[in-house]
Structures are given as C-alpha cells and as structure tokens.
Amino acid sequence: MKTLRFRRDDGRPVGRHPHPTDPLAAARIVAATGVDLLMVDLVGATPPVPTRPAAMALARTIREGAGVPVVLAVGLRPDTVRAAIDDVGPYGVDVITGVERAGHRKDPAKVAAFVLAARGGDVPAPGPVQDSTPQ
C-alpha cells in the first residue's frame, strides 16, 4: 500500500515527492508502480470537515479512476465514517485520531462505535469513557 496525500481545500497533491497537479494523474502514477492498495489521505482542509462534498468528490474520482483499490484516510470519526463510505465507496477506511482521547490513547468505546458505524449500524450516544488500560 502506498499513501498519496492531497490537500482537501484545493485537491493538490502534497508530500515529499513531486506529483502532477491533477490528483487523478498523481494517483495513476503511484498506482502504476505496482501497489496493491492506494491510501488516499485528504489533509489540511479549512475547515477540517471530513465529509466535505469537494473532498468526497475528489476521493471518489480517484477511486473510480486509479485502477487499484482505495483506502480512505480523511480524519474519519464514528459519526462521519458511514457517510464517507457511502459517498466514496472505498475498499477500506483508515482511522487514527478519530478514535483517540486525550494523550493520543485509543478509546475502546470510540473504536467500537467506529466499527459499528462503518458496518452500517447506528452510532451509540456518547457515554462515559471507560479506560481498559491496565494500571
């Protein structure tokens, strides 16, 4: 899997390697290297709303035209993942900060809610945070 990062606000590729300004062309170049999966990471939007129509349209265009399965990384949370899946139709989704609590620690309740939502279930109302970390 190779990650290709794009700015959510204007769709331009970002990162260490130069890419064409056309996001689909950049995705096709990376896909042509023989990767099995392409992670589309949409970063730096203002405001940082993961389900912005322009960001979802960009991810959908890449998924439809890149020629390899796409994993979507876009700052997803339990309350936004289902809409992103419905809008884009990715092979998979990536989550890190969307299921964390203070101190960059994973919140088991948020992880469970994320998985439930990604599978199409209703996200439970937020409850008290339970820390299952051994003391």
Automatic annotation (TrEMBL):
Pathway: Amino-acid biosynthesis; L-tryptophan biosynthesis; L-tryptophan from chorismate: step 3/5
Lineage: Bacteria, Bacillati, Actinomycetota, Actinomycetes, Propionibacteriales
Signal peptide: none
Keyword terms: Amino-acid biosynthesis, Aromatic amino acid biosynthesis, Isomerase, Tryptophan biosynthesis
Gene source species: Raineyella fluvialis
A Pfam family annotated for this UniProt entry: PRAI
Domain (N-(5'phosphoribosyl) anthranilate isomerase (PRAI)) ranges: 68-115
GO MF annotation terms: phosphoribosylanthranilate isomerase activity
Name used for this protein in its record: phosphoribosylanthranilate isomerase
Disordered: annotated span: 1-21
Biased composition (Basic and acidic residues): 1-13
InterPro entries: Aldolase_TIM, PRAI_dom, RibuloseP-bd_barrel
